[in-house]
């Protein structure tokens, strides 16, 4: 097995601890899902920079005490971190690239969330519009920022288009509010009145800095995590207790470039293109999807 195959196998294994997305998507020929081949969402989420976007979003989400408490109280991320990672990837992949029935299944999966009480005494429900908005909006902002920093510069028009496309997902999840431009989205996140330090936040950040991975996997993950942290707005970095450096961004770009060489573009993107009957360059994707 060559180096490219070994890298691919390790990364694929990280996302193979739950139900796999789009397993039966070829059965829904002609169904372009929520976006379709001409969307900016398919391009943004199809690149390996989305790995950094996902890590960035999880760190920012921890800055909201109620959301952080909900994850701490009702998630098995400590005992089953790869399972949670895989389930998150399943949701994002299904909503972005899935056919209608696959999208509906992913929505129902998320809406089966539990409820509880956070450390500030406020009732927490993952399906409450304001909490759903925090999770959704931080994901949208993070995927966009990661693509811009680690794939290619994105225009203001493309950024706004991505935000509007992703708002379609947010509406499906009952999220509110959903800013309509990238600038408004960033402002909403950075200036959000609820963000504050909490014990659940500290626990989540400590975990995200050093999850239980193998030694080799942890080295690669730490590069991605530090690169992701370097792209977070200074105000939120301070709340999260993150210290970053410009070198983290440079090293992260190097690793992402190598991962892109090994993994190419998302097999889910390829599957959605095939299902939609679109013409595309097959050499941009691996042959295993």
Structure description:
The protein has 289 residues and is mainly alpha-helical. It has one domain. 62% of the residues lie in helices and 2% in strands. It has 14 helices and 2 strands. It has a two-stranded antiparallel ribbon with strand order 1-2. α1 crosses α13, α3 (49-61) crosses α11 and α11 (215-230) packs across α13 (246-263). The longest helix has 22 residues, at 129-150. The radius of gyration is 18 Å and the shape is globular. The protein starts with a helix and ends in a 13-residue tail after the last helix.
Strand-helix topology:
Elements: H1 3-14, H2 40-45, H3 49-61, H4 65-74, H5 81-97, H6 100-110, E1 115-117, E2 123-125, H7 129-150, H8 156-172, H9 182-190, H10 199-209, H11 215-230, H12 234-240, H13 246-263, H14 267-276
Antiparallel strand pairs: 1-2
Number of helices: 14
* Largest sheet composition: 2 strands, antiparallel
Helix content: 55-70%
Q: How many domains is the backbone divided into?
A: 1
SSE pattern, N- to C-terminal: HHHHHHEEHHHHHHHH
What's the rounded overall pLDDT mean? 88
Low-confidence spans: none
Q: Quick recap of the structure?
A:
By secondary structure, this protein is mainly α. It has 14 helices and two strands; from the N terminus they run H-H-H-H-H-H-E-E-H-H-H-H-H-H-H-H.
Labels describing this entry:
289 residues, mainly alpha, 14 helices
């Amino acid at each position: 097995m060559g180096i490219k195959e070994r890298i691919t196998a390790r990364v694929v294994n990280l996302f193979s601890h739950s139900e796999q997305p789009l397993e039966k998507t070829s059965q829904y020929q002609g169904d372009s899902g929520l976006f379709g081949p001409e969307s900016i969402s398919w391009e943004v989420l199809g690149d390996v920079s989305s790995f950094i976007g996902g890590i960035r979003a999880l760190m920012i989400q921890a800055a909201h005490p109620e959301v952080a408490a909900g994850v701490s109280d009702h998630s098995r991320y400590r005992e089953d971190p790869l399972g949670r990672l895989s389930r998150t990837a399943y949701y994002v992949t299904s909503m972005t690239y899935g056919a209608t029935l696959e999208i509906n299944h992913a929505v129902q999966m998320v809406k089966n969330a539990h409820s509880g009480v956070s450390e500030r005494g406020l009732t927490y429900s993952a399906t409450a519009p304001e909490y759903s908005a925090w999770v959704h909006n931080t994901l949208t902002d993070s995927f966009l920022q990661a693509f811009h920093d680690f794939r290619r510069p994105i225009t203001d028009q493309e950024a706004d288009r991505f935000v509007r496309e992703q708002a379609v997902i947010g509406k499906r999840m009952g999220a509110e509010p959903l800013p309509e431009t990238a600038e408004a989205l960033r402002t909403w996140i950075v200036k959000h009145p609820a963000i504050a330090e909490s014990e659940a936040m500290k626990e989540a950040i400590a975990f995200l800095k050093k999850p239980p991975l193998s030694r080799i996997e942890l080295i690669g993950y730490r590069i991605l995590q530090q690169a992701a942290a370097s792209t977070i707005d200074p105000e939120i970095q301070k709340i999260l207790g993150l210290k970053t450096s410009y070198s983290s961004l440079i090293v992260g770009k190097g690793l992402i470039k190598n991962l892109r060489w090994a993994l190419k573009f998302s097999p889910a993107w390829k599957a959605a293109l095939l299902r939609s009957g679109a013409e595309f360059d097959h050499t941009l994707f691996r042959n295993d999807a």
